[in-house]
């Protein structure tokens, strides 16, 4: 027992420090107290404290808060969030938002886009009409064939996410796993035998691994990918290599398999090393699932999608994994009975959480002569791009996580179950989907032309350049290596981690990297739309302070 002395229900609770057990409302129950559990120890000491918002002020007693208590608590929280918003510089999300005036009305409206975006639903409180407009906008921006047409395999299909790119990655990898392991495509799912869990027949002479996809992604990949392969039980090349071919790491015979595909100093995937790894598994007949970063999380690096696509397709073609028939039932002669389809034995997923929102406009700016360069092509212009995801709260800016997932209609898999209950096919990941997010993205896109977006992209690009130069100057001034670096065309600038107070004030994101065998604690700053030169100069002033960098 933790606190013998103090009866748990005497623990002071809520803004008045009243014992928890005295804070009940006047609801009269026949047999004494409501059947709820009291705290066993003091929650105020159980959790980390936020100095600006004392937990006591926001704890929720059974009686709720009266208007005065509520006002005090909310004012504390508001002041804290408004201060942090002003100085927020460390993450790739835009934080100057102004939706309140126009969209406040909808906070009192229920919007739920449950089910497929292209099917109306018996759940009529939805914003799917706006969702489809937003999806068409991105299909065009990313050079997909649009509008969506369920009978045209080359047309795009997509949906707006309720989480951010983490959900897009999860959904993309789920689709990829089922596609590569030979499950039934959606376009073949008519008829009575349309079971999503059906397994394919192994063809004559086909590798025993023909339907065991292996995943590849770089060391600079977002943790949501690691989580997705875990949740989906997808084998990574590291796992298969270590368990089945322990002594055969093709990157260094006799050395341990790397956990991820190595990346370059700039943070982009090392295409040559990826090629060596992909060849090892393709030669054994494993289908290949590659997830690429378009804007890696920490360095903001762009994988060379075009080079990877060309390389992976070339290698897969050598081993019959570029196009292959997938058979489902045995015909009379014991072979496939014609119920088959042809599909690729590889899948390229693009994690464009930030980059897919921002770089299309930078490319427009380059074509208009406003900037010299833009990052490499990543979108559906490349025929090998199978799926793509982007976060809505990052480049565009929304008050909560949201995003876009997009693929080609012909690559969709049969959903696990038909969903008569909601009146629309259950083709998305979540059940209920956030319909407010569609409204936010629609609002933003309606109010910003390509010209506006291109101008904003140039401004952020130039701001990142400014931050980079000023930090290099500071490094000279202090006569000390601050490890200042910016990957090509990245909005992130990284440098040596300063004092924790500065990290907290500007919400700087931390990462420890190994460089030349030593650990380096880094932070980065992201040059997003809300960040001003003034705020950057404030940060530089703080970084000049005597204790800014530990000796
Ligand atoms: C932010 C990020 C994600 C995750 O996006 P959420 O919107 O936070 O789910 C995935 N990949 C990359 C490269 C990211 O930067």
TrEMBL record:
Q: Which Pfam families match?
A: Pyridoxal_deC
Q: Which UniProt keywords apply?
A: Decarboxylase, Lyase, Pyridoxal phosphate
Q: Give the protein's cofactors.
A: pyridoxal 5'-phosphate
Q: Cite a single GO MF annotation.
A: pyridoxal phosphate binding
Protein known as: Histidine decarboxylase
InterPro entries in UniProt:
Group_II_Decarboxylase, PyrdxlP-dep_de-COase, PyrdxlP-dep_Trfase, PyrdxlP-dep_Trfase_major, Pyridoxal-P_BS
Q: Which gene encodes it?
A: hdc
Q: Which family does it belong to?
A: Belongs to the group II decarboxylase family.
Keyword Metal-binding found: no
A single GO BP annotation from the record?
carboxylic acid metabolic process
Query: Record keywords: Lyase included?
Result: yes
Q: SUPFAM superfamilies in the record, alphabetically?
A: PLP-dependent transferases
Residues recorded with modification N6-(pyridoxal phosphate)lysine: 394
> What domain of life is recorded for the organism?
Bacteria
